[in-house]
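Exercise (ungraded).
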Amino acid sequence: MSIHAVPRHPGLDPGSRSLPARPKQKSRTPAFAAATAWWAVLPIAFLAFLALLAVPTHAQDSLPPAPYAYRQLDDPKLEAKAQALMVTLRCVRCQSQSIADSDAPIAGDMRSQVRLRIQAGEDPEAIRAWLVERYGEYVSYAPRVNRLTWPLFAAPVFLLLLAAVLLRRRFVRGAGQ
Amino acid sequence: MSDKSQNAMPASAKWALWLPLGLFALFVVLVLVGLLRPADREVASGMVGKPLPAFALPPAVADRPGLANTDFTGKPRLLNVFASWCIPCAVEAPQLAQLKAAGVEIEGIAIRDKTEDVTAFLARNGNPFARLGKDDVSAVQLALGSSGVPETFVVDGKGVIRYQHIGDIRPEQVPMLLEKLKEAAE
């Protein structure tokens, strides 16, 4: 796996949690130092260790979210339309979440774009097609029937028919005995 | 099934007894393959081979002009999508400098970035960009079919995207990009 950007999972968002401030070395008088038991510095050492661990995850933009990332459209009908589309679009960064579920910045930007386009009167399926053109069928959670996906749709029908044939044979045989 | 039918089981039905076990073994193999093969999380852009989407971005820093798709005329260029908050973007800076030294014109798009942050980033890592646009809501990034930073596109003199490089440019990948630029010039 490449280190193509740094995974931006909401849980890893450094902006959303307060890190323990790196404890500063206090200048203590020798008398105080002598009075302090050696194990008293352990929590400080532990905190310093935590702060060290936290440094490499710093990779998050500091811009505010896009206008419609966390704001619904004023028209409830249009918002419902946008919401229905957003739950079926995959976040391209946090790949097992829909853009409606994800707090990744790019998911917010995608939501904002979807809402603005719906507001401008664009058809939801046209927006989906626009994204599929760029990211492939992968970006859509609503698979369409095509050369690759037809077995998904054909398999249940085939299994039902097979079950019907087998059951029929069994019932006919049972009636014959 | 009655005893009678079991005793009278034809030879052809005997192998069928092993069928569930065989199917199970197949399933185990499938799971193992899925587990052991490194997952490919990269999303390739469907825009390769197509013209750049229309865009016009304001400048990201004071000393470079902004970037529009109409700037990609005449000769092949690199389009680097990056951000100051992205660590691999700093890692690839020496490689971009190397490409610039080889005479490549590099245009940049800063994603979700503040002017002061980009300025500090470029002061720290060098500024290989001829033009630098800022994309505050990832709109152009989405239009390009780019799913993260850094990504680098090879764009030919007619503004057609010829190649997409996902992730940071490693030192050993510089000759490959120069080759792609040469191909785009033909």
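Further reading is listed at the end of the chapter. For now, observe: The domain at 76-139 of chain A is CATH 1.10.8.640 (Helicase, Ruva Protein; domain 3). The interface with chain B takes residues 1-6, 56, 58-63, 66-67, 92-93, 95, 105-106, 109-110, 112-113, 131-136, 138-139 of chain A (CB under 8 Å).
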